[in-house]
Amino acid sequence: GQNIDQPTEMTATEGAIVQINCTYQTSGFNGLFWYQQHAGEAPTFLSYNVLDGLEEKGRFSSFLSRSKGYSYLLLKELQMKDSASYLCAVRGLSSGGSYIPTFGRGTSLIVHP
Amino acid sequence: SQTIHQWPATLVQPVGSPLSLECTVEGTSNPNLYWYRQAAGRGLQLLFYSVGIGQISSEVPQNLSASRPQDRQFILSSKKLLLSDSGFYLCAWTGTGNTIYFGEGSWLTVV
Question: CA of A15, closest CA in chain B: separation in Å?
């Protein structure tokens, strides 16, 4: 089975930097995803990591350490529109032998002025 | 281009009534297909996935079922809805790439 943990809620100030952590336990790791989800909408893709290290994409960066079962999403220069839920998902081996993505509960980020 | 559609977008159903949510994918072949449910303020719970026509795997025991009658069609059904079935349902697909593509979502309220 797979187990994914991330904080339930975080708050930050506009213009600041915030780091959202995700720890996981899985069988047959095959990639980690970060998604952003605004209330009432489908999730949108932010990043994908399969090798250790940092992936940078504009104001968003994602880091992975496979040996530690750990990832973080770093958001810089926070804007009010970044207030959303951030979902960590791990693609691991299911009991049926297929690689499937499992999502954590999500971290609700509140950005205030 | 690759797209995914699911419908209906919203529905209000009485307890004990049947359910059918449909999802279709365009622009790809032999995708892995998924149904997730999201309760209010919660994460995405994987309900079913399919790696091919007629192949359905269930992750959570419940009164829902899924079918894949065609390569790019995935259907979520129930014969008798429960109040606890209310939530936001998302269809998704993955291929050989590194992205999970989501449909627009379906809001189900069981009353």
Answer: 26
Given this model, what pLDDT does residue B40 score? 77
Q: What is the pLDDT of residue A34?
A: 97
Q: How far apart are CA A1 and CA A64, in angstroms?
A: 20
Tell me how long chain B is: 111
Positions of chain A with pLDDT under 70: 1
Per-residue burial over B32-52, b if 16 or more Cβ lie within 10 Å, else e, is bbbbbbbeeeebbbbbbbbbe
Q: For residue B81, give how far its alpha carbon lies from the nearest alpha carbon of chain A (Å).
A: 22
Least CB-CB distance to B43: which of A41, A45, A87? A87
DSSP characters over A47-75: EEE-SSEEEEETTEEEEEETTTTEEEEEE
Q: Read off the pLDDT band of B103 (50, 70, 90).
A: very high
Query: Looking at residue B1, what is its pLDDT?
Result: 72
Query: Looking up tokens 């009485």, which residue turns up?
Result: B14
Element (H, E) at B94: strand B87-94
Mean pLDDT of chain B: 93
Nearest by CB to A100, from B43, B49, B103: name it. Answer: B49
